[in-house]
Amino acid sequence: MIRLLITGGAGFIGSNFILYMLERYRAHIHITNLDLLTYAGNPANLVDIEGLLNYQFIHGDITDPELVRRILQEPYDAIIHFAAESHVDRSIEGPMSFFHTNVIGTLVLLEAAREHGIKRFIQISTDEVYGTLGPEGLFSETSAMLPNSPYSASKASSDMAARAYYHTYGFPTIITRCSNNYGPRQYPEKLIPRIITNAIQDKPIPVFGDGGQVRDWLHVTDHCSAIDYVLRSGQPGEVYNIGSNHELTNLEMIKLILNLLNKPHSLIHFTQDRLGHDRRYAINAGKIRHELGWSSKIPLAQGIQSTIEWYVRNVDWWKPLLQSESL
């Protein structure tokens, strides 16, 4: 049986990964989920697996060295580190908490994992560490890291810590950097759930600047499968970019969702652009495809349609989150 410690497993990507792995490996895997349950960590994401004998939840902070060391007294085959402050707008308003959680928390985990001889440490990162692209080209694993927001700078810093632990101590870290994720259970401050939930309620949909920012969209289930490939076959010390080559401008994405929901484009409301807003992200996923055999499977149109259907069915999941935001 493989034993995994997942950090941030009550969040969007972490919860989807836990559900994916328990469905795929069933009785052959045990997962411990360490999560502080900050605003985006939602226990409702994992309500369906409460009571399973091969799942354990621990409420705690990755920046607490004593707690992390105590947890790692139990044997684990790997740590998959999702836990992070992740919303760019929030990082602009309050950068200190991002660096504390994303950098100090990662260092605490790395040091405790090294002390306890963990065999594999997967640092879940983002294409945002590379900065921004012009109209052409793709980010590769050898692209320079040129982060432009406090969030992406904190993630780049934690990536560098993971890299240093491999090169200095020989500790088996692997870094994955994904493009923009979408799918079920995403906190409604993010672009796609914000579009869907506002449109359902016939509320204005804010668009930063001219809406021409380009993102490469990756369904969260495809991302989960890629992490599984890296867990099983990835090489220590390596970086793997994860993307799907589904590029759309933000404005194109908004219009696509409005059309699928049969909502008028008059809901679109242009606002002042975000500070330091990156213009384009795009991932070259050739390395993980050629070396590990992974590729994305979910077409964008299908993925967006199924995501819309999930939010339509699960109003009771997202409406309380919007109400708490407005308090």
Strand content: 15-25%
The residue-averaged pLDDT reads: 95
Radius of gyration: 19 Å
The number of distinct β-strands equals 12
Separation of termini? Answer: 45 Å
Uncertain ranges: none
- Major sheet characteristics: 7 strands, parallel
Q: Reading side by side through the largest sheet, how are the strands ordered?
A: 3-2-1-4-5-6-10
Q: Structural class of the helices, strands and pairings?
A: alpha/beta
Descriptive report:
- 41% of the residues lie in helices and 18% in strands.
- With 327 residues, it is an alpha/beta fold.
- It has a seven-stranded parallel sheet, with helices on both faces.
- Helix 1 (12-25) packs across helix 7, helix 4 runs parallel beside helix 5 and helix 6 (191-200) packs parallel to helix 8 (250-260).
